[in-house]
Amino acid sequence: MRSNQxxxxxxxxxxxxxxxxxDQPKVxxxxxxxxxxxxxxxxxxxxxxxxxxxxxxxxxxxxEALFAAADINFVHxxxxxxxxxxxxxxxPHLGEASRLLILLGDAPLITPRTMxxxxxxDCDLGVLTAEVADPHNYGRVIxxxxxxxxxxxxxxxxxEQQQRIGxxxxxxxxxxxxxxxxxxxxxxxxxxxxEYLLTDIVDLAxxxxxxxxxxxxxxxxxxxxxxxxEQLATLEREHQRRLARELMRSGIxxxxxxxxxxxxxxxxxxxxxxxxxxxxxxxxxxGKNVMIGPNCWIKDTLIDDNAVINPNSVIEGAVIGxxxxxxxxxxLRPGARLERDVHIGNFVEVKQSRxxxxxxxxxxxxxxxxxxxxxxxxxxxxxxxxxxxIDKHETHIGDxxxxxxxxxxxxxxxxxxxxxIAAGSTITRDVAPGNLAIARGRQxxxxxWAGPQAxxxxxxx
Length: 461
Ligand code: UD1
Ligand code: CA
Description:
Blueprint: E1 7-13, E2 30-31, E3 34-35, H1 36-45, E4 51-56, H2 60-67, E5 72-76, H3 83-90, E6 99-104, H4 112-120, E7 125-131, E8 140-143, E9 149-153, H5 160-163, E10 167-176, H6 177-184, H7 200-207, E11 212-216, H8 229-249, E12 253-254, E13 260-268, E14 273-274, E15 278-286, E16 291-292, E17 297-299, E18 302-303, E19 308-309, E20 314-316, E21 319-320, E22 325-326, E23 331-332, E24 336-338, E25 343-351, E26 353-355, E27 360-368, E28 370-372, E29 377-378, E30 383-385, E31 395-397, E32 402-403, E33 408-410, E34 413-415, E35 420-421, E36 426-427, E37 436-437
Parallel strand pairs: 1-4, 1-6, 4-5, 7-11, 12-14, 13-15, 14-16, 15-17, 15-18, 16-19, 17-20, 18-21, 19-22, 20-23, 21-24, 22-25, 23-25, 24-26, 25-27, 26-28, 27-29, 28-31, 29-32, 30-33, 31-34, 32-35, 33-36, 35-37
Antiparallel strand pairs: 2-3, 6-10, 7-10, 8-9
The structure holds uridine-diphosphate-N-acetylglucosamine and calcium ion (CA).
């Protein structure tokens, strides 16, 4: 960076995003479940700038309400007359001699490292460029015979030869508040888009004999911009690929890094394996040697070492102890806390419940608002009837209880240690330790039952 200039960052986020055909401001479109602008702000803040100016236009009030913060200065651009016009709006807010980094709100994958590289570049104007396979829609970088940057030409103003150039303008520029002002004073709308193009300042700076540099992005994917949903999907995948790469580098086995989605923060211990099509949201922490089968949706959850999450499990707000086995087709809802070696099988739902070590609920069960001890067997089809139509009530089950299949436990209720519940029971009273409770109609056998008769009469008289 030049001398001891303060850094100010300007993010252009006022554009209409016409090509998205959406009512939502473009910068609110999500990458990994977070608005694009959120990604940019996070990276921008890593540079500890004096201030971040965000130019808003379409949906300004929505954007401003979402991102209001002490370090952000929102600048309203009432009419979107181009990227140059957007930066003009910021000029009165800039310090005397600040280093100014300009970012595009619709190009959110630029890393703090690249931003820093720009800010540190020894030049009056630096333009971040990239070599891309498909330069369509981007401004092209025109270099002189010595490779020096001469000009940026927008696609619509480019001739055929210029359109064949594969080096594009990422839109990210670095300059200083004084210089940019002088150049912006001189740009006009004499171009195919009839807008004030920020890119026109390059030509002016060159003609002024200033030091102008094209700084090539090391990773061209940082340059990708979002104008439509196809590009949004491309950026989403690129961002996911980066996250997947980090996970694999930390010793996680991803069966296919192209088929994982992390919308938040996922930390995982070495030796863990994640099969395809898993989606992680919020804050998820996975221990060592955890196996996660395909098609799981996991949000805000902690999974301890050696646990196995079988395919198609839906898990939110849960704490899963070591050696647990979950699913396939299990649903753990917020407040599910499983101690070590708990087995939750298919079509079992657990909500706001504590389940002790070694307890098993292997099939077709609802456990809600319950505390269950260690070594309990919950038979198939067991339901904690926790809701009376108005209030929720709790079920308490001690250690080593055996609950037979198809049992309804009508809460509030306590089943003490070592008790047995016979299959098919509807339990409405507490059961003492070691007792067997049976609460079902007695079986009646009718001898020599003739079965339905052909004349339509029933066999029983
Ligand atoms: C721009 C660049 C192009 C570059 C590309 C990279 C210009 C003239 N062109 O083109 O060289 O290759 O980005 O992705 O700069 N915006 C405003 N106010 C406005 C207009 C735009 O805030 O009046 C904001 C938009 O919200 C957007 C960003 O500026 O976040 C870029 O605008 P956009 O219209 O998408 O420019 P491109 O045509 O993509
Ligand atoms: Ca764009």
